[in-house]
Design goal:
Elements (H helix, E strand, L loop, with lengths): L1 H23 L5 E5 L6 H17 L3 E5 L6 H9 L6 E6 L1 H8 L11 E17 L7 H10 L5 E4 L5 H13 L4 E4 L3 H9 L5 E5 H9 L3 E6 L14 H4 L7 E9 L4 H14 L3 H9 L3 E2 L7 H22 L5
Parallel strand pairs: 1-2, 1-3, 5-6
Antiparallel strand pairs: 3-9, 4-7, 4-8, 4-9, 4-10
Length: 324
């Protein structure tokens, strides 16, 4: 009886400590892990959101870039992190495609994380080096088909948004092209700017400024409608690729076991950040916008991840693309 009472007291003390921590959270700097190189589209989204969330929480949120293996290295680190609310994770659609792309993952994408909320849906653009010979998408398509053995397609590595878009694009046009994988979108874009590779499909958060400055050529956007900030850029559907549509969603997570009150505090801060006029304006400048408040919630992201895993699994299986 005495031992049982001692154990009960210990459990109550532990619960009381966790509850007290949740009540006072946060009391120190928070780290948000981005599983890609600095300068890429997910990194850009994360830094904008982190700054505004930090203002709401009255604590700094710093970004740590942990790139490699299509985002799975960063994800694995977060899955093993202490569930105390001081390690967060910003990832995109790749979080839902990794279970199908990788034969063995050191974590479970659905059960090893606490969803905080969706952040944004980002359109993608087909872009090429600035001296690419095609003037419009019709010429672009004809050129890459005629020169399929010479044209190079850059992506940010297996599982990245640019990899997924490229895979769908090549399937849609019935042409296999030489792909050049990089460790992140930033390095891939640098080589596109330098003319070392021919083209890529990348998020507007990474391409808009380069398109507007004339440093790269844009041939189409992957959404159903044209972008307000680039109204002259046709959709791929308009340009001659009927039904082609892909957008890259971003979500925010914490390690499994993070107290509900902490998760709720973070979700509330995320919702506030997505209403921040500066965040909304910067997103608009980059060709995207924050999700509705109802989607910036744990239950919405949980359901979305499940649905996206189910959507992409047969597509990836049919394509026969896997990573070790």
């Amino acid at each position: 009886m005495k031992i049982t009472l001692m154990r009960a007291a210990a459990c109550l003390a532990l619960f009381g400590s966790a509850f007290a921590q949740a009540q006072t959270y946060p009391t120190k700097t928070i780290t948000m892990i981005v599983p890609f190189a600095a300068g890429g589209p997910t990194d850009t989204v994360a830094r904008l959101v982190a700054q505004s969330m930090g203002n709401k929480l009255k604590q700094q949120i710093i970004i740590e870039n942990v790139g490699g293996a299509g985002g799975t290295i960063g994800a694995a680190r977060v899955a093993k992190a202490a569930p105390d609310g001081y390690t967060l994770f910003m990832h995109h659609i790749g979080h839902a495609t990794a279970p199908s792309l990788y034969r063995k993952l050191p974590y479970n994408a659905q059960t090893d994380f606490e969803p905080i909320g969706l952040v944004t849906d980002v359109p993608m653009t087909i872009v090429a080096r600035k001296d690419f010979p095609a003037r419009d998408f019709k010429e672009f398509l004809a050129y890459i088909k005629a020169n399929k053995d010479k044209v190079t397609y850059a992506n940010a590595g297996v599982g990245s948004a640019s990899h997924l878009c490229g895979m769908l694009f090549m399937t849609a046009i019935g042409t296999d092209l030489t792909t050049v994988p990089y460790k992140g979108t930033g390095p891939a874009m640098n080589d596109l700017l330098g003319g070392q590779v021919d083209f890529m499909c990348d998020q507007t958060t990474n391409t808009t400024s380069q398109i507007k400055s004339g440093k790269i050529k844009a041939y189409g956007v992957t959404t159903k409608t044209r972008l307000p900030n680039m109204p002259d850029l046709p959709t791929l559907n308009e340009a001659g690729l009927p039904g082609f549509e892909v957008a890259v969603w971003h979500g925010l997570y914490a390690p499994k076991g993070t107290p509900k009150q902490v998760v709720d505090t973070l979700s509330s801060a995320l919702q506030t950040a997505l209403k921040d006029p500066n965040v909304k304006q910067r997103f608009a400048d980059l060709g995207t916008e924050p999700v509705a408040e109802s989607r910036a919630r744990p239950e919405a992201l949980r359901a979305h991840v499940k649905a996206e895993i189910e959507r992409w699994s047969p597509i990836i299986s049919k394509a026969g693309v896997y990573a070790d």
